[in-house]
Fold Muconate cycloisomerase.
Amino acid sequence: MSSVIESIETLLVDLPTIRPHKLSMTTMACQTMVIVRMRHSDGVEGLGEGTTIGGLAYGPESPESIKRNIDAYLAPLLIGQPADNLNVLRARMARHTRGNMIAKSALETALLDARGKRLGLSVADLLGGARHAHLPVLWTLASGDTDKDIDEAFQRLDDRRHCDFKLKIGARDLDEDVRHVAAIKAALGERASVRVDVNQAWDEATAVRGIAALQDAGIELIEQALPAREHAGLVRLANRFRVPMLADEAVADARDGLDLAARGFSGAFALKIAKSGGPVAALELAHLAQTAGIGLYGGTLLEGTLGTAASLHAWSTLGELAWGTEMFGPLLLEDDIVAEPLRYHEFGVDLPAGPGLGIALDEDKLAHYSRK
Ligand code: MUC
Ligand code: MG
């Protein structure tokens, strides 16, 4: 008799960040995660996480909407259903609810975690099998202060934590941003790869000016310079400059990827389980990109350990990640709600061993940081 989904609990968990994290659309001092606990009739519990950035600043879902829409709409679709057929359950959620991809990603993660625990397999095993046990991880310098960012970068290099850095720009005047980025790249020289993420803040004319200057400064990758829906403009930038473009907000799933590929986009796609609605759809995008000759980058919405682990299981199944990953979310948080943190070392992180995600909760910490 196959196991049945019995209950789904959602918790809002607020964790402070180690320093303010400044992006073009918001400054984060705290990260809010929605933790899903899904109990099955055989006693197995699946864990999932749905996390975004800065309330409603980044995208159409907020932590509160993720929790509310799981509780009111998505959980009732799953409760009472046989737990083991992920394809049927994903189709059921897609047929009866629109959007809410972060909420769906949290639920898909919990389904995979539970199934893995039941079968004694890791989530990567369920997704076809891991090809890597250690994945490279970049760090985002986003204190807002050039000298602090340089100090932080040297510390991470000396600790052998990270050797690739992404700078968040777009909130300030273009010339100020270019000065900030060029100073950091000049200080780090050949010791580090430096990339920027504009988070949609520029129009095309500003992007042309900005990218020309950043290319001259030695920046290696330009992430999401234009608003998400401006696919034609993004392709023009990719064709115009030597420095590659990384599509992030522009490419949520394989449908977006197909549109960009059909328009002749070259460069790379940032994969995120949150924007695709879970690991399975994120890998569908990855496979389309591989077929189209577009590079891959394992992206984060700054999830905590559960969401980061789910992403790592997915990215570990891919052969090549041309631009590595940015799965550093837990390192931006002052504390954690899991029993054993992920192991970051040698410029990367170890894939947690299963079964499932291979992550257990620390119940005291979870209770402490859960919103009352
Ligand atoms: C994004 O847009 O890429 C990833 C790293 C970071 O600092 O912010 C995120 C989101
Ligand atoms: Mg981005």
Notes: The mean pLDDT is 98. The first helix runs from residue 63 to 78. The pocket of magnesium ion (ligand 2) is lined by residues 197, 199, 223-224, 248, 270 (CB under 6 Å).
